[in-house]
Amino acid sequence: MDRLTEIASHAREAANVLQTLSTSQKSAFLLAIHARLAAAKSQILASNKKDKDLALPLVESGKLSSSLYKRLDLEGPGKFDTMLQGIKDIEQLQDPVGKVAFANKLDNGLELYRVSCPVGVLLVIFEARPEVVANIAALAIKSGNAAILKGGKESFHTCEAVSKAIREAMEEVSAATFEEKEGSTGGDNNKAVKHLADAVQIVESREDIDGLLKQDKYIDLVIPRGSSALVKYIQWNTRIPVLGHADGLCSTYVAESAKLALAQTVVVDAKTTYPAACNSTETLLIHSSHLHDSSKFFPQLAKSLVDQGVTLKCDAPALASLQASDLFKDHQDKIQASNEEDYDTEFLELTLAVKTVDSAEDAIRHINEHGSKHTDAILTENEAEAKRFMAGVDAAGVFWNASTRFADGFRYGFGAEVGVSTNKTHARGPVGLEGLVIYKYQLHGNGQASADYGNEADGKKPYLHERIDVGEKETLGELARKRQRLE
Amino acid sequence: MDRLTEIASHAREAANVLQTLSTSQKSAFLLAIHARLAAAKSQILASNKKDKDLALPLVESGKLSSSLYKRLDLEGPGKFDTMLQGIKDIEQLQDPVGKVAFANKLDNGLELYRVSCPVGVLLVIFEARPEVVANIAALAIKSGNAAILKGGKESFHTCEAVSKAIREAMEEVSAATFEEKEGSTGGDNNKAVKHLADAVQIVESREDIDGLLKQDKYIDLVIPRGSSALVKYIQWNTRIPVLGHADGLCSTYVAESAKLALAQTVVVDAKTTYPAACNSTETLLIHSSHLHDSSKFFPQLAKSLVDQGVTLKCDAPALASLQASDLFKDHQDKIQASNEEDYDTEFLELTLAVKTVDSAEDAIRHINEHGSKHTDAILTENEAEAKRFMAGVDAAGVFWNASTRFADGFRYGFGAEVGVSTNKTHARGPVGLEGLVIYKYQLHGNGQASADYGNEADGKKPYLHERIDVGEKETLGELARKRQRLE
Questions:
Q1: Residue A97 contacts B where some CB pair is shorter than 8 Å
Q2: Which residues are bridge partners to A274 per DSSP?
């Protein structure tokens, strides 16, 4: 067995044990990881210094960006403590595993339950920030998954030190956990303890990733967090499902009935608060009525943006509107003609493509053709139009009178964000812990044979198919207790 | 634009319209398809006769199986009516689109809704049975998806006739639908009518499929229904998500506390009622205590199977147990030694691999290594052991004291079955209409900017993150009415 197959198969063995752990057992692991990391702070920071010492000459010679160097640094004020607190926060979240989403009585004594369970083995690839190791390890363990991690090569020593502390914590607690576990034999316990040590593993090189992307027998989900080029490369080089987004080309459509002050607030927020973020607006769609009306709607909206340093790349009607306005005299450099590529470009800076449209239907068509299915907004006072837009735009987020910048797991209130997905299957938009679980069907019977069921006319028993009422996020145990009370 | 890109992009245009239709609009299309197919019965059967006339010589020369010929035949008793009734049944199902699964108040006047929506464009590949065109068309339209279909080449003329009737129904009703639609302009209506005609398209050749598997820009989900070889070929030759299962290698574990009569009933049902089905049991795991006990548990269980014509391929301990029994004298031909490959083989006939294990943990390990993650059962009177098995086995179905043959969308009570999936993401097990939808996040605001929210200490507004109570399968409209009543 080669090294990468060994890593992947060991992760699978770990996942097989992790999926059987209770919420409190998983919490014990998370708290132990927290404690080990806290205790290993000085060793981890020493490793981080090694990474920084290696990176500094590269920054000085211009081979590494200073922003990447900054992300690499774990010594910055509060960074280590934030990493530690993140583990405690994840430990406090609701366990996504073991929830019943659907239950159906096929017959008396033959009951079907759809129960959430971990996906299995995750391969997570990220850049630079070494604290992601602790964050992903916590998310994976909380949701009962094993994880193989690859950080940026610049942060390797730090990642290694963090993952060493995690492994030690897993070993320590698993020995204690499985001594108490009832019903399984000594040999099985020893195996479980051994396997759990491999719950979180790290790999170092890009070549390792190429090899692991072929391990579809063992790995269930790949989560790339990084540049568009990285995500696209991974999407094209594996048959394992990939959760992520390559691009964030968000649009905001200012409809005919939109109010100017609202549009100014929302569009300026959507464009300028963090231009490099994937949820920033890259294209402004403006209803043609605003270009030449007496209220100077569009020139005033444009002014709010230009005042914040935004360059507008406009189609011909929008450009003509601004060229006829006072704004143009002082800001010729920030008001430019657009070309076709601008509507397919994720600028990631203070540049905004502007396109004139004649209706919500035009806006929808433009977005469905040019957007990246991330997040798109309509600003309108017309509810019917807003609904048409939200139904017709094919994107993870469809917003009405709000900034695209709200598209974020923490802002949505998920407690944790695994990543942002523009997929059309499994998980879409900002993905919380729920993206790391799937479900299995449990069927509880007492000896039923399928051949006994069918049409009554043929002397068979008909299926009852009586839905069992399931509350939100109920476990099988909670459901059973509730049903007992009702009887 | 080449022909396949045209087909795929037209499907996308149709999907963009389909996703905006209401339940009653979709019902109108389904009922029109039903009526058109009923009216076109004689033309469709004439096309079916053409297919059969072409196929018959192939059957006679042994190039085509008679069972495939039988599946091709749409004239068989009740087959056409069953196809028609299927469309009405699907029309009656609950609309899977527009349901709110989660809602969160980020702030007063800033509310987030996770709403189900169609996946988009489906590519469905199936073999022989031409009535699948009508079935998939109905499932796709009910869930707001466009579909591109490829049936077996033997059924091409029938598929073509069925799809022609579907196209005519779509054209007829879409003209009527969009005349009434408020708020969009004439040009948009004409476009919508034109696009909807392409909601269901068929392609003919294997080469077409190879080309369509590259159309990941337009196609969102591939559903292969057919042989293991077909499914594997597709899984390996596209980066579009694939919903399906290549293998159905199901196991049943007879634990120490299992009752003999129950085991006989369940295992005989699981093995013999339809050996070619993917949910039939292929491996029997037997606890070692049953091999040589005074009750002759295993020889009696084996006898029930052998009496039904099953050949048992046994590991050494199981073989020894049977060789020492009376059964062996009369049935030497049906009691054989197994080899390692038998535990990785989907026999699809009356052959059962038998393996001796010493614990549920051994059974779980065997299944996780050799199974296909389809459906596996434990027969036991020990609830704790059943729970360990259901948590530890990584499969779409984990059954306790019931036959693996229950793993089926209709038996589960889903009303319709799109396919069976052994995926670890999106949809798993028998997949109903829910497998054809994903969700989008609607955010309803009144002009909020993200920069205004954050820590109170920094002078920002904190997020409320108040969960909005959502009932099961509620639409946004129903949710709004309920909240009004509560206020």
A1: no
A2: none
Beta strands in A81-137 (DSSP E): 99-107, 110-118, 121-126
The owner of tokens 């010594």 is A75
Structure-block tokens of residue B173? 């009703």
Q: Does A374 contact B at CB distance below 8 Å?
A: no
Q: Among candidates B276, B330, B278, B280, which has minimal Cα distance to B302?
A: B330
Q: What is the CATH topology of the domain spanning B3-95+106-236?
A: Aldehyde Dehydrogenase; Chain A, domain 1 (3.40.605)
Q: Nearest-CA neighbor of A125 among A12, A212, A29?
A: A212
Question: Which residues 15-54 of chain A have a CB within 8 Å of chain B?
Answer: 15-16, 19-20
- pTM for the model stands at 0.94
Q: Which CATH class is domain A3-236?
A: alpha beta
Spatial neighbors of B333 by CB under 8 A, at least 6 apart, are B311
Give the architecture-level CATH label for domain B250-413. 3-Layer(aba) Sandwich (3.40)
CATH homologous superfamily of A250-408 equals Aldehyde Dehydrogenase; Chain A, domain 2 (3.40.309.10)
Q: Give φ, ψ of B66 to 5 degrees.
A: -70, -25
pLDDT tens column, A306-349: 999 999 999 999 999 999 999 999 999 999 999 999 999 999 99
Across the range B2-20, mean pLDDT stands at: 96
Mean of the per-residue pLDDT values of chain A: 94
Q: Would you call A390 an interface residue with chain B, using a CB distance cutoff of 8 Å? A: yes
Residues of A in contact with B106 (CB under 8 A): 406, 411-413
Any CB–CB contact under 8 A between A185 and chain B?
yes
Burial readout B166-203 (b: 16 or more C-beta within 10 A, e: otherwise) = bbbbbebbbeebbeeeeebeeebbebbbebbbbbbbbb
- For A96, residues 6+ apart whose C-beta sits below 8 A from its C-beta are A116, A142, A143, A433, A434, A436, A437
Q: Which of A239, A388, A446 sits opposite B235 (nearest CB)?
A: A239
pLDDT of B177 = 78
Q: How far is A454 from chain B (nearest CA, A)?
A: 9
Q: Does B399 touch chain A (CB under 8 A)?
A: yes
Longest dimension (CA), chain A: 88
* H-assigned helices in A197-239: 206-212, 228-236
Question: What does the domain layout of chain B look like in residue ranges?
Answer: 3-95+106-236, 250-413
